[in-house]
Amino acid sequence: MQPFGLFSTRALSAAALAGTLLAGVAAPARAQAPAAQAPAAAASNTFDAVRSRGTLSCGVNTGVAGFAQPDSQGVWRGLDVDYCRAIAVALFNDANKVRFVPTTAQNRFTALQSGEVDLLARNTTWTLSRDTSLGFDFAAVNFYDGQGFMVKTSTGAKSGKDLEGATICVQPGTTTEQNLTEWARANRIRFSPVVIERLEEVVQAYASGRCDAYTTDISGLASTRSTQPNSEEHVILPDVISKEPLGPLVRQGDARFADVVRWTHFLLIAAEEFGITQANAAQMVNDPRPEVQRMLGRGGDLGKMLGLDNAWGLNVIRAVGNYGELFERHLTPIGIKRGPNALWTNGGLQYAPPFR
Amino acid sequence: MSQTTMDPRLLRAPPKRKLRLSWADERVRGIVWQILVVGLFGAIFYWLWSNTVHNLEVRRIATGFGFLDREAGLPIGESLIEYSPTDTYLRALLVGLLNTLKVAVVGIVLATVLGTLVGIARLSRNWLLSKVAGVYIEVIRDLPLLLQLLFWYSIMQSLPGPRQSLNPVEGVFLSNRGLKLPWLEWQDAHTYALLAFVAGAVGTWLWSRRATALRLQDGKPRPVWPAALGLLVGLPLVVWFAFGAPWTVDWPALRGFNFRGGLTVTPEYFALLLGLVLYTAGFIAEIVRAGIQAVPHGQWEAAQALGLRRGAVLKRIVLPQALRVIIPPMTSQYLNITKNSSLAVAIGYQDIVSIANTVLNQTGQAIEGIAIIMLVYLTISLSISLFMNWYNARIALVER
Ligand SMILES: N[C@@H](CCC(=O)N[C@@H](CS)C(=O)NCC(=O)O)C(=O)O
C-alpha cells in the first residue's frame, strides 16, 4: 500500500484531533454555556454539517476483502463500503457522494473523535467503553462475529490449546489483543505476541512464518485466507474466543445522525425480510403490504421523520440492494456463511424493528 | 611629560532618561508591545484550552490521567522489565519508554563507532577503501529510512523457521524468530556483582583524579592500573563469590513452536537497530570527515615533521581538534536517532509511540496520549542536548 503515508496520516489525525477539538466550535461553545438544558448541541450538528458539505466522510478499513477493499479500478468494494454508500443515498440520493477514508485499527477512533470522518463502518466491535468513555454511539450490528485463530496447516495445530508456546501475530488497538491476553491467561497458554499496526505488514509477518498463528475476527481471518496465494495451506481453528458484534458507529451526541445510520441498517434487513431487492424495488412500491409501502415511501412519512426524503428507502435499496444481497455479493465469495447473520426468520440474529 | 587624557564623552554616564508616558518614547512603545503580545498569546491559549475542555465534555470523551492505573491488557512482545498484560497502562508505557531507550542508546553508540570508522575510511589513502566508504555514504543517505527499515525487516522475515534455523555455533540459533544466544541465568548475586562493578568504576575514576593531582604536586607518577584492576575485576569477583558464585548457563532449545531459554534478539529490534545505525552512520561519517578536514593541513605537516606516525598524528593531534567541529552537529544526529526510533511502529517494535498509540486507542484519550509522547521525547532530547553541550564546553579550546 503506502507505507509513507503512515506517519503523515498519524500526525495528521493527531493534529486534526487536537485542531478540531480545540478550534471546533468556538461560538456555540460560548453561546451555549448558560443553556444547560440543551447539552450536546455543539456536537449534534453532524447531520447538518454533512448535509451542507454535500459528501459523507466514511472511515473504512485499509483493505479487508469482503468488507472494504479497492478493486483493480480503484473502486471501493465490500459490505462496509456499501453501508457508507447506502447512508450517502439516504442523505443525498447519490451513492457517489462518499469520501472513503482508510483507517487502521489503531487510528480509527481518533479519526472519528476529531471529525475527520463522520462515521466509521469498519468491522469495529461494540463494547461498553467505546460506547461511553470514548464518546461514540454504535448505531447497529451489521455483522455478528467472534475471534479466532488461523495457522498454517503444516503446524499441525488442531485447536487453540495446541498454541502453547506459539508466536501470535495481532494488530494493536483492537479488542483482539485484549481478548488474546485474557484467553491465554484463562487457559494457561504462554505465547509471544508480535504486534504490528498495518494490516499488510501483520499478514506478511504471519505469512512469512514470523508468527505461528494470526488472530483476529473470524471474518477477517476468512478474508485474509481468501487473499493468500495458497489458501488451502491455512486453516482457521474451530475455537471462537469472544463475541465481536461489528457495526457502524458515530460520535456521541448526534442522535439524529445516529438514527439515520441505524434505520438505514434496519431498512436493509427488513428489505430482505420482505423480499425487496435491488432489481424489484421499483415495482415493490405497488406491493399491497402497508409496511412495504411505508418503507419505500409510498405511504406514511417515515422518511420525513428521519429528516430525509420520503423515498429514501426506495432509493437506498435501488442503489445497493438488501442485506442478503450485500452478503451474497461480498461475503459469500470469500467463504463466509450466513450463520448468526441470517435473518431471525431463518434462525439468525438479524432483526429489524417495525417500520411504523 | 604627557598626561593621558580620556575622551570626556566616555567618562560621562549616560543620561538617565525619565520614562515619559508618551508614544514617542521608545521604551514605552516596547513595553506596550510586549504586554500586547503576551496578552494575545495568553488569550489564544485560554481560548484553545477552554474550547478543548468544553468539546471533550460535549462529546462525552473521558479526560484526565486516571486511566494510567487501570489494567492494560496489552500484549507486549519484548520488555526490559517484568511485564504481564494484567499490569497497568502506566507500566505498559514504562515498558515502551525503556524499549525506546534500549534502541536509542545502543543505536547512538554503534552509529558513532561505525560512522567514525567510515568517515576516517573516506579519507584513507587506500583508493578502494575510500571509494567503498563514499558509495556507502551516498547510497545510505539517499534512501528513506522507513524504506530501509522495511527492507531489513523483510530480510529478517525471510530467514528460515525455528526448526530449520541456522546454527553457526553451539547454542546460537538464527531464524525468523530472531537471534537466540545462550545466557547466564540471572540471579541476585549477578546484580550485586554488577553494582560492585559500578562502584569500582566510580572508585577508579576518583583515584585517577587524585593520582593526577598528586603528580602535579610532587612530580611522581602513580600508576592507576593496579587500583583499577582491583576495583573493576577484583571487587565484583569477591562479591560474586561471597554470594556463592552462581553460574548456570541458560541454553536456548527448540521446544514445541519456539525456542525456550537463552537470550533473544527479536527480528523487530534487530531490524530497527540495524536500520537506524546504518542510516545515521552515513551522516556521522560525513560529519567526522568534515571535522578532520577542518583541521588545517599545517597541523599534519607540523606533527609529521616531529616524526609522529600517521596513526599517531590522527589520534593525538588531529582528532582532538576535529572533535570541536564534530560535536555540535553530532548532537543533532543523536537527536535524530532517538526521534527516528519512533518509526518502530512500522515494523512492530513496541516503542513508546507504539504503546502510547495503543493506549490512546483503547482509552480514547488522544490528547493525553500525545502529551505523554511529547513529554517523553522532549525529556530525552533535552537530556541529550544538555549532555552534549556540557561535553562540548569541556573539550572546547581553553583560552588563556
Ligand atoms: N473487531 C475488532 C478488530 C477490528 C480490526 O481492526 N480488525 C482488523 C483485522 S480484520 C482489521 O480490520 N484491520 C484492517 C486494517 O487495519 O485496515 C475491534 O473492533 O477491535
From TrEMBL, chain A:
SMART domains recorded: PBPb (SM00062)
Similarity remark: Belongs to the bacterial solute-binding protein 3 family.
InterPro entries in alphabetical order: Bact_solute-bind_prot3 (IPR051455), Solute-binding_3/MltF_N (IPR001638)
PANTHER family registered for this protein in UniProt: AMINO ACID ABC TRANSPORTER PERMEASE, AMINO-ACID ABC TRANSPORTER-BINDING PROTEIN YHDW-RELATED
CDD domains per UniProt: PBP2_BztA
Gene3D superfamilies hit by this protein: Periplasmic binding protein-like II
Solute-binding protein family 3/N-terminal domain segment(s): 55-284
Protein keywords: Signal, Transport
GO biological process, one term: amino acid transport
Signal peptide stretch: 1-31
Any Pfam family the entry gives: SBP_bac_3
Protein's recorded name: L-amino acid ABC transporter (Glu/Asp/His/...), substrate-binding protein AapJ
Keyword Plastid: no
UniProtKB/TrEMBL annotation, chain B:
GO biological process: amino acid transport
Domain ABC transmembrane type-1, chain residue ranges per copy: 97-388
Bilayer topology term: Multi-pass membrane protein
Record keywords: Amino-acid transport, Cell membrane, Membrane, Transmembrane, Transmembrane helix, Transport
Xref: InterPro entries: AA_ABC_transptr_permease_3TM, ArtM/GltK/GlnP/TcyL/YhdX-like, MetI-like, MetI-like_sf
Subcellular location: Cell inner membrane; Cell membrane
Residue ranges of the TM segments: 30-49, 103-123, 135-155, 189-207, 228-249, 269-288, 370-391
UniProt keyword Membrane, yes or no: yes
Entry GO MF terms: transmembrane transporter activity
Alphabetized PROSITE patterns for the sequence: ABC_TM1
SUPFAM superfamilies on file: MetI-like
CDD domains in alphabetical order: TM_PBP2 (cd06261)
Family to which the UniProt record says this protein belongs: Belongs to the binding-protein-dependent transport system permease family. HisMQ subfamily.
Protein name in the entry: ABC transporter, permease protein (Cluster 3, basic aa/glutamine/opines)
Protein's organism: uncultured Acetobacteraceae bacterium
Species lineage: Bacteria, Pseudomonadati, Pseudomonadota, Alphaproteobacteria, Acetobacterales
